[in-house]
Amino acid sequence: MDADKHFLSIRPPYNKSVSTADVVIAGAGIIGLSTALELAARGFRVTVLERTCAMTEASWAAAGMLAAHDPENLSELRPLSELSISLYPDYLNTVECLSGLQVPLRTSHTLLGSEQNHAFSNALPSPEIARQVPDLNTASRSFQMLNEHSFDPRDLCAALPKAAAAAGVSLIEQCPVTTVRGSVRGVEITTPQAAWSAAHFINCCGAWAGAISNLPSIEPRKGQMATVKLPSHHRLECVIRTPELYLVPRGDGRVVIGATVERAGFDKSIQETTIKMLLDEAAALWPPVREAQVVETWAGLRPGSADGLPVIGACGDENCWIASGHFRNGILLAPATARVMSELLLGEHSSIDLAAFRCDRFAATSVS
Questions:
Q1: What sign has the CA pseudo-torsion 154, 156, 159, 163?
Q2: Is residue 16 over pLDDT 50?
Q3: Residue 192: pLDDT over 50
Q4: Cα–Cα–Cα angle for 237, 241, 243, nearest 5°?
Q5: 3-state secondary structure the chain
Q6: Among candidates 277, 222, 280, 288, which has minimal Cα distance to 255?
Q7: In DSSP terms, which residues pair with 23 in a beta bridge?
Q8: In sequence order, what are the residues at sequence separation of 6 or more whose Cβ sits closer than 8 angstroms to the Cβ of residue 333?
Q9: For the chain: N or C, fewer Cβ within 10 A?
Q10: Which CATH number is 1-104+152-217+306-368 given?
Q11: d(Cα 259, Cα 115) in Å, to the nearest integer?
């Protein structure tokens, strides 16, 4: 569909001191760049403004699990999760074809553990657990197997910006958005470097989105993580996940272990005691971790919302939108978020009901 047919009439007049675009997106993480890729495929001229460098915040720090059926997920997420899973094969194929880089799936199953002293009704028998993951500590909890994929987000961090550029998206880094002013004629966006006029603006700034959209209900949730390297005589071929932690194999002997959930503002420092706690808990669940070498530790800032659900849709001034607050599911929900955002901007019927994700739900809650 030709986006110019929809937006040419409200595109601001040419001004040599102001750049123009059909859509300006703030934030070049997986949500922002995936949305840009989707909009570019629909014929939009898209500019993405990134405050630091593309894909270096929550997207880079993530574990990469496509955990659509995790019982820890809120029920309101199910339609968006199911849509995203259905879109993922074409999404990754598009990214790979445009970028020339591979984003391989690293695992195809997850061994999901119950809460302590609880049992699943469809729990795996002990011999099958031992076959899947030898030495797993099954005391006081049961396990079930999920058909669930994972990939290394670092692969996507390399490929997605290249894919967006190949699709015609303009990506400008080290360019934080300072003001946004929307009206029926379009949106004016300013940065320390320059100004833009666009038909639409989308706030995809993750943990930083609240400040831009004056939405204090979105704030950072810190997560500390570690990667270990297993000795050659140990292998892990599926994800192990419990309500307390997860172990995500990368297919080359490395295993990602995480993650804490902390309210620490924008602090991304790493505490050795916290990392040790994570490693001890992982070793208690799967003892081979005790023999592994720690090769990397890091912390990321997830965009959390007051009710744990994403914020997707109109927000603030006319022609201003938001796609943030994905918390621990940004990797999982990126293709679906991109799809529904393109539908919203084109005035199409949404693939799913977005009522649970409306920006104004927080105002309604505060009044009551």
A1: negative
A2: no
A3: yes
A4: 175
A5: CCCHHHHHHHCCCCECCEEEEEEEEECCCHHHHHHHHHHHHCCCCEEEECCCCCCCCHHHHCCCECCCCCCCCCHHHHHHHHHHHHHHHHHHHHHHHHHCCCCCEEEEEEEEECCCCECCCCCCCHHHHHHHCCCCCCCCECEEEEEEEEECHHHHHHHHHHHHHHCCCEEECCCCCCEEEEECCEEEEECCCCEEEEEEEEECCHHHHHHHCCCCCEEEEEEEEEEEECCCCCCCCCEEECCCCEEEECCCCEEEEECCCECCCCCCCCCHHHHHHHHHHHHHHCHHHHHCEEEEEEEEEEEEECCCCCEEEECCCCCEEEEECCHHHHHHHHHHHHHHHHHHHHCCCCCCCCHHHCCCHHHHHHHC
A6: 288
A7: 46, 200
A8: 31, 77, 80, 81, 84, 310, 326
A9: C
A10: 3.50.50.60
A11: 16
Q: What residue type is assigned to position 273 of the chain?
A: T
Residue carrying the six token digits 């001229």: 45
- Tokens for 154, please give them: 């670092």
CATH code for the part of the protein at 107-149+219-305:
3.30.9.10
Confidence band for 292, pLDDT divided at 50, 70 and 90: very high
Burial 51-65 (b: 16+ CB within 10 A, else e): beebbebbbbbbbbb
What is the C-alpha to C-alpha distance for residues 238 and 246, in angstroms, rounded to an integer? Answer: 11
Hey, what amino acid is at 339? R
Confidence of residue 277 (pLDDT cuts 50, 70, 90): very high
What number of CA atoms fall less than 13 Å from residue 316's CA on the CB side? 26
Which pLDDT does position 200 carry in this prediction?
Answer: 98
Block residue for tokens 């970028």? 99
Both tokens assigned to 364: 């309604």
For the record, the structure tokens of 71 come out as 């019982």
Buried b (16+ CB within 10 A) or exposed e, 158-186: ebbbbbbbebebbbbeebebeebebeeeb
Domain boundaries, the chain: 1-104+152-217+306-368, 107-149+219-305
Burial class of residue 203, CB neighbours in 10 A (0-12, 13-18, 19+):
buried
